[in-house]
Amino acid sequence: MSKEKMGILSYDRKAELIAFDETKTGVKGLVDAGITEVPRIFLLPSPENLNSDQELSLPTIDLKGIHEDPIRRKQAMEEVKDALGSWGFFQMVNHGIPVDMLEEMKKGVLAFFEQDSEVRKQWYTRDRSANRVVYNSNFDLYSAPVANWRDSVMCTVYPNPPQPEELPSPCRDIFLEYSQQVMKLGCSILELMSESLGLPPNHFFDMGCAEEIQVTGHYYPPCPQPELTIGTTEHSDAGFITILQQDLVGGLKIFYQNQWTDVRPIPGALVVNAVTNDKFVSARHKVMANKVGPRISVASFFLANLKPEALKVFEPIKELLSEDEPAKYRSTTAKGFLDYFYSKGLDKTPALLHFKN
Fold it and tell me: What stretch or stretches form a coiled coil here (predicted)?
């Protein structure tokens, strides 16, 4: 028997996942240790498609004046409708969050991950209910087919914001400031989305689309063999909307018109994606691993109440349904959807398909 076949037979993936997890230092710990080859738990079964359409560009929407000028608001509303109806994503500028605050937020996430590993370990957990702050590598480490080249730190900031002492010191002040700003911006986006569909401005908010808000900082270390792994596996987000801040390293790709398209970073811009009864596209996206790094991104997820006792049922919006446009998804609770999303892991299959009629 060849050495290669013997190696495959002797590969205990579960044991290697546990060994990696128990270090509590994530992918950054591997890089700090000086590895030159990607460990097997991160290896893709086949090389990722690196080709991108260089001609296409994600729509960029200017939000300046939308709260003062009705004409600007209507224009932005139509642009949101077009972008989410075709791409499922858009970038936005003049969104109201100061550029220096965006930069400080990225610096705060970077500072968290670049703490001494013994300090960082204190925040490491897989129990999302145990701490206000959850730091780990790959939320779906034991369920996804391939581990991603990424570490994350997450905190639920609404409806019960953390006390300052509950947050890591490197990002404590900016985390609270940023989360307040992103909540305000998210509500404005939900209003534009509601109006673009001919619904009252507060419709999505009243539905419960912002009952819980999670802010997650992602850290993508430089990878010695980026062609063999992935930063974040192809997926569709689980929240109603996601507001994403990315640095200038790049790597985010969206699947549009049957091909992958780069989301080119624009300084000071934020990226939005959303989901409805297919009125808006729930776009597939992924993040490539890169020899350059670290890459920092900050994702703010607008969710329904995820507490076990919150049994509110979510279903396609009745006002948008007709004989010609029937419900494409069956009803579910937010917790039921998120439980399925987390148990399935990122495996290229959208969680929404599980609930399709």
Answer: none
